[in-house]
Structures are given as C-alpha cells and as structure tokens.
Amino acid sequence: xxxxxxxxxxxxxHSDKMLIxxxxxxxxxxxxxxxxxxxxxxESDAYQCFGLLKKDTLIGLIGCWTFTKLHSGKQLELDNVxxxxxIQSKGYGKLFFNFIADWALKNGYESLGLNTYVDNDxxxxxxxxxxFKILGFHFQKILTTK
Length: 146
Prior knowledge:
- The protein contains four helices and five strands, in the order βααβββαβα.
- It is α+β, with helices and mostly antiparallel strands.
- The longest helix is centred in the C-terminal third of the chain and has 15 residues, at 92-106.
- The mean pLDDT is 93.
C-alpha cells in the first residue's frame, strides 16, 4: 500500500479535486457554499492542506490550522479529515495520520487537535486508536441576520 501512496501539500489550484472529497463529509451543504468557504480558507495564512494520493488520484485530505493555545502550545488543528468513503478501513487513515504527526513534530508543533461530528462514530473509534482523547465539547451558535 505505501509504495502506491504519496503525500502532497495542496494549494488553491487543487480546490476542485478537494471539493469532491469535502462533499462526502458535508453532503447537506450546497456545493457553491463549500466552494466559497474553501476559497476564503485559502486566503488565511493560518490554513494549509495536505493530500494523500494513490498513484495520481486524491484519496484523502487533511486541512490544518495553526494556533497557539494556552493548554496545548503550538497546535496543528486538523480540519476536514477525509479518506474517500470507497476505500476507508484499509489503513490509509493511519498512514496519513502518521505522516501528519511526523510533519508536525518536524515543524515545531507541540500538539494535534481536531473536532469530529457527534454522529460520526466510526471516526471516534479511529481517533481513539490514534491516541487522541476527548478534552471537552465544541459549542456552536449559528448567527443569522433574520
């Protein structure tokens, strides 16, 4: 498996390929909205994204945000962690997380953080197996102009 896979830092020009995977994680959000939000994310200096490729096909991605937090120091916050749903549970996620953790250590990060959807039980088991612990709850309030 490893001989066929490569890791690549993605850029704005990869957005269309990224959106194919992002739709799998966010099927209820309109494509145009996802496209616009991704465009805004690329404008931030704190955002970067890595891709996992099998041959030349993008099969996974991990968006990353850099933050410094009091409780964890310089943290790489993982966002939109996706392995193509057609090939999940085949070891690609673990391979990708090993790459990200190694990259983060080499680049001076002290911790990894992430959020996952409450109803995504499959991801919870995976993250526990990768050494993550639940530290709290992420609360959100959607603001509207109505």
